[in-house]
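INFO  loader      accepted 1 record
INFO  loader      residues=204
INFO  predictor   begin
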Amino acid sequence: MIRRIIQIDEEKCNGCGACAAACHESAIGMVDGKAKLLRDDYCDGLGDCLPACPTGAITFVEREAAAYDEAAVLANQKKATKSQSQLQQWPVQIKLVPTNAPYFDGAKLLIAADCTAYAYANFHEDFIKGRIVLVGCPKLDAADYSEKLEEIIRNNNIASVTIVRMEVPCCGGLEMAAKKALQNSGKFIPWQVTTISVDGKLLD
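INFO  predictor   done
INFO  writer      dumping tokens
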């Protein structure tokens, strides 16, 4: 079919990538340092990319092109969202994380057992997203995390604490350490515990 679609002049393109970032449909990508229209059926012809281009390399043309496939675009966006890491900081191991860091200011804290991210398929979206992550295993580390967690909670402006553990008994040590840290910190902070079964289901 003949329809309006974008055209990119590679000679004018400076490779800044602004158009690719502006394209909500992911129709544009960077190939060998130049912007390229990757799929005709992802381009809706509305031109959000045009004002983003600093060199005027993008224009509209009327040509033979596949019809805009909104369903395919939405499916691609959903897939991209699910596969995107939500991790905001590093390191994440309780033993390695500093007790004072800028990312703790106003943080929603996630204290999670090591195995939870492997057992629960949508861990990033349901638990990591929007939170600062601390992970550990009291059985493998043979350590009491309560003192370090207490120091983190006491010395920083923590907004909330979410504890995610497996249903296995050894995870009880992580839950107890987090609760002890909250109690000894002298602060009143909203907190909750979520337990995951060994087959990856939420139990509470």
